């Protein structure tokens, strides 16, 4: 039996991420949605798949082949560090009684 255990992710929606493995390696995009229960995320412009849709005249939807983003595993993406121009990891620091996300390589704060 599979348990739904919420995993802790340091990434947040709106973060700029880069794909570190898979068919879209090296591509950058912003996080659109994160599913913590199955460790997947949807990124703008990454992991594009073609979906065949039926027409629905009541809703005004035309049928055909639609290209959309599919979920990608969280282990296959990393946050993009614009100063270093490469993928990085996230750590936390406490400043003035506030927990702040910082890049691990240069300890600069992540603007999100």
UniProtKB/TrEMBL annotation:
Keywords associated with the record: Ribonucleoprotein, Ribosomal protein, RNA-binding, rRNA-binding
Domain KOW: 14-43
GO cellular component: ribonucleoprotein complex; ribosome
All copies of domain Large ribosomal subunit protein uL24 C-terminal, residue ranges: 46-109
GO molecular function, one term: rRNA binding
Short name of one Pfam family: KOW
Top-rank lineage group of the source organism: Bacteria
Biological processes annotated in GO: translation
Subunit structure: Part of the 50S ribosomal subunit.
Family to which this protein belongs: Belongs to the universal ribosomal protein uL24 family.
Physiological role: One of the proteins that surrounds the polypeptide exit tunnel on the outside of the subunit.
Name the UniProt record assigns to this protein: Large ribosomal subunit protein uL24
Species for this entry: SAR86 cluster bacterium BACL1 MAG-120920-bin57
Gene name of the encoded protein: rplX
């Amino acid at each position: 039996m599979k348990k739904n255990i919420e995993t802790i992710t340091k990434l947040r929606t709106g973060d700029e991420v880069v794909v570190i493995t898979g068919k879209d390696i090296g591509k950058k995009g912003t996080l659109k949605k994160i599913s913590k229960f199955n460790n997947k995320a949807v990124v703008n412009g990454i992991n594009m798949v073609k979906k065949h849709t039926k027409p629905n005249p009541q809703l005004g939807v035309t049928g055909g082949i639609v290209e959309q983003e599919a979920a990608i595993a969280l282990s296959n993406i990393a946050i993009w560090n614009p100063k270093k121009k490469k993928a990085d990891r996230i750590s936390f620091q406490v400043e003035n009684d506030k927990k702040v996300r910082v890049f691990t390589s240069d300890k600069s704060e992540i603007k999100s």
